[in-house]
Write a structure and sequence with these properties.
2 copies of one chain form a homodimer. Chain A is of the alpha/beta class. The first copy, chain A, has 2 domains: 236 residues, Aldehyde Dehydrogenase, Chain A, domain 1 (3-Layer(aba) Sandwich); 144 residues, Aldehyde Dehydrogenase, Chain A, domain 2 (3-Layer(aba) Sandwich). In chain A, the strands form 4 sheets. Chain A has a 7-stranded parallel β-sheet with strand order 10-9-11-8-7-12-13. The N and C termini of chain A lie far apart (49 Å). Chain A is built from 15 helices and 16 strands. At the A-B interface, helix 9, helix 10, helix 15, strand 13 and strand 16 of A face helix 9, helix 10, helix 15, strand 13 and strand 16 of B.
Chain lengths: 419, 419
């Protein structure tokens, strides 16, 4: 066992022990801790900004792209944002102990199923240091110990933030070890985490496709896959084309780099001639590059050609692929072939088409007449989210506090034995 | 890509396509298919018995142990049992489409979460051919396509059963390809299945610890871990010792080879002198071998010595390890250290101890004053089970039809876009 393996394993062991006590820690203690953690972040903003300044300087010296520098950067406002997030989490209802079912069996056994914490959650994330606070808050509130493994470029920022959070939490009675930060830039730490079966109950990777793929393929610890989003908007025949244009523009341009943004626009052939020119003009005014299939290019002749690869690409950028389809069946087939199971929408006035689209499209969130951009824990009313699951096990779609719980059967008897 | 990889991948592709249609197949069709499958098994009992006879002959020639031969063996009664299981599954409520939540957001978006099938489920199992029918029935009823991979020793039996089931299902309108059987004894097939991300949604291994460990460690497809059961019975001070003895005997001896059987008995030191001699006598009458710690052996002097390894062993046999503890805290610590998260019970008259035991013990099912043997889909009222999950993600405890579902958010709007 090398050094990093021993360090991470010891941290996981400590987290597991803490998780046992945290599972039976009251909401009052957890909420007081969350508020104290928020106060501590604001009080120690100077130290956090100093650490972040060092990370920023090193990243700039390495020639890190501007977009990534912006994600790494902290300022007073962002620290206040982290603190506000902690306080909001304190105000959410505590899911732990909530009853899910209760039954009395013919033999008199009383069986209840209640929500319990999962145990120890590993979060592997990239540039943004605010994930440190968000993830710690959601895990703490749901009674889970957390092992945070941030990106190496944010090491000093994350060290400062996690240290302040852990100290403040402990002072309020949260078991020591419940918030763990892996204080090493070594990539081996991720490999160690992925093999901590029996200590870690789940790993949630948050970051680029490469990171997520690696964890899904290699982890022996169960994984919740998040984030990949090839989302479609389908404009049906007879749709309100004004509404369709507003929804398409919003889905593509309001925040192109996020996972619920549209990547491909599908248009029924019956409305292509009317809709596509207006769409192309409006998208181009927002600097969107268009790539179409032959039928789309027959209408908007100066559109670039979409390749097979385009249909399978999450641009995360101001690029949109456009395809004309013969009918709703072709739209659904295209979506089910190329989507990542995230969010899909149909713009239609046809009740049967709306119903069919929602039944047959295989995705976490299937919309009728609304932008896919709403797939988000806050927008769904969950208060916060740890990520958006694109897999079908355990949780699908935005993951809030409820999705960070497991269950336990509690059975009361009076001496029953089984025949 | 070698032959077995191509075959299995093609089957998974066919299963995935079938799963899309099966997801929107009505309960009426699914239930008619289940009844037709039951009839077909009974009608073709002769062919099944002939195939099973060949498997049995080959297994006997290889010197297969008697216990395994018994699990492999089919007769008229067992075939009728399979058919009855199919008919019972037809009578269970269909979980698909059931609403889990519904909310209207401030912006007017209507958000519903409904149960949907998982998609394609891989079942990897060992000797018993009846798993073929049970798993096919539960997956079909819950709208999932299934890929069945049975043990090589039951290849001919499983081929016969799965072929009859698939044919009968298809005749009733179940999409072709929804019930797939991997007709190869090659161990490579398991390796291929574990890498079918994007085609298989989950793998459920059912069998020995070696199989389950391999799948958990190596699979890129999400896994639901089942079956390991180091279950404890704790006899508290002040317990009704008559009840404690009945529960302990039932938990150990009613069916020692199953996962919800007791492996370790913990006894409070205050009742050890009175309880242990009676317990030892009764267990020995049932041919149970006892292995105790020093304190237990001070009371029952002819008990063998338990080693550290005993506490961590699932005997699945008529062996019981026995430990005397100072108090309930030591009992809970011992359980949380050595258990597999399956089923645990306390025999007590103390309300606070009952409450504390249920809160602090980390397991799928935590009992007060009842035998751990009740952890079972039928006993819990789920009608049938595909296995007992000992992990915390997705499902914990007996997995019935509900646990074979995922969810989907259905959102209705009137043109909403996100700011």
């Amino acid at each position: 066992m090398n050094d990093i393996e021993k360090i991470v394993r010891d941290q996981a062991q400590a987290a597991k022990e803490a998780s046992r006590r945290l599972a039976v820690t009251s909401s009052a203690v957890k909420d007081a801790a969350l508020r104290a953690m928020a106060d501590a972040l604001e009080k120690n903003a100077g130290a956090i900004l100093a650490a972040n300044g060092e990370d920023m300087k090193a990243a700039e010296a390495k020639g890190t792209p501007r977009a990534m520098l912006d994600r790494l950067m902290l300022d007073e406002k962002r620290i206040r944002g982290m603190a506000d997030g902690l306080r909001q989490t304190a105000m959410l209802p505590d899911p732990i102990g909530e009853g899910e079912m209760e039954t009395i069996r013919p033999n008199g056994l009383e069986i209840r199923r209640v929500k319990v914490p999962i145990g120890v959650i590993g979060i592997i994330y990239e540039a943004r240091p605010n994930v440190t606070a968000d993830a710690a808050a959601l895990c703490l509130k749901s009674g889970n110990a957390v092992i945070l493994r941030g990106g190496s470029e944010a090491l000093k920022s994350n060290r400062a933030v996690s240290g302040i959070l852990a100290e403040a939490a402990e002072k309020e009675g949260v078991p020591k070890g419940a918030i763990q930060f892996i204080d090493s830039p070594s990539r081996d730490a991720v490999g160690v985490m992925m093999n901590l079966t029996g200590l870690l109950d789940v790993i949630i990777p948050r970051g680029g496709a490469g990171l997520i793929r690696r964890v899904v393929m290699e982890s022996a610890v169960p994984v919740i896959e998040t984030g990949a989003g090839i989302c479609h908007t389908y404009v049906d025949a007879g749709a309100d084309l004004g509404m369709a244009l507003r929804i398409a523009l919003n889905a593509k341009t309001s925040r192109p780099a996020v996972c619920n943004a549209m990547e491909t626009l599908l248009v029924h052939e019956g409305v292509a001639k009317e809709f596509l020119p207006k769409m192309a003009k409006a998208m181009r005014e927002k600097s969107v590059e268009l790539r179409g299939d032959a039928a789309a290019r027959a209408v908007v002749t100066d559109m670039a050609e979409a390749s097979e690869e385009d249909w399978a690409t999450e641009y995360d950028d101001l690029i949109l692929s456009v395809k004309v389809v013969k009918n709703i069946g072709e739209a659904i087939s295209h979506i089910n072939r190329y989507n990542t199971g995230h969010s899909e929408t149909i713009v239609t006035n046809d009740l049967n088409h709306a119903h069919r689209f929602q039944r047959e499209v295989d995705a976490a969130a299937v919309y009728v007449n609304a932008s896919t951009r709403f797939t988000d824990g806050f927008e769904f009313g969950f208060g916060a989210e740890i990520g958006i699951s694109t897999q079908k096990l355990h949780a699908r779609g935005p993951m809030g506090l409820n999705e960070l719980t497991s269950t336990k059967y509690l059975i009361f008897g009076e001496g029953q034995i089984r025949e």
